Amino acid sequence: MSYFSSTKSDRNVAKPQTAPEPRVETKAATSKPQETMSAIGAGVLITGNIVATGAVQVFGHVIGDIHAARLIICEGAQVEGKVMAQEAVIEGKFKGTLHANTVKLQATAFVEGEVYNKSLSIEQNAQFEGIARRLDKAIDAPTTAQTQPAAAIPYASAPATVYTTEPVTNGQAYASATEERRQSWTS
Question: Looking at the whole model, is its pTM more than 0.70?
Fold first, then answer.
């Protein structure tokens, strides 16, 4: 009897057939990628412009322009400036000019200014003071190229000012020590 080969009787016995292994069909990814959500937290004040290819959710205070695919101004939040978005949902305060394909003013919203839209819905108890006009052209989401800075900001090339804690006995000793340090930093 051999340990490595099967006997004649083992070879004649029918082996149970196993079910064929299921094949996983791989389809090309046709669904949209996950939308990026940027949030501005409560207690945060931003003064400046915001450009986002995805959604922006504001819990804090923004003074400036916002261009995003989707904007949500949450209850208790404030935005002052010009907004461009495909969709805007306002639960907090907004003052300025709003351009959006779809605008939803929730019950807690307070809007003061101009609203340009394709579709506007205002819930009961929402406050709106201003004008609403129909958009001529739909708003597009910002592109990735629009989120890049216009030009790289170069580092300052001016020599650094050096402060020393050494006692100054005369002006010449201080000036030479400062120049030595400046040269050692730049080399």
Answer: no
127/63 same-domain check: yes
Task: Report DSSP letters for 29-83, one per residue.
Answer: --SPPPPPEEEE-TT-EEES-EEEEEEEEESSEEES-EEEEEEEE-TT-EEEEEE
In which domain, by residue range, is 79 found? 37-142
Q: Are residues 137 and 166 in the same domain?
A: no
147: helix, coil or strand?
helix
Structural domains counted in the chain: 2
118-128: per-residue pLDDT in tens? 999 999 999 99
Task: Report the chain's terminal Cα–Cα distance, integer Å.
Answer: 83
Query: Each residue of 31-67: pLDDT tens digit?
Result: 455 668 899 999 999 999 999 999 999 999 999 999 9
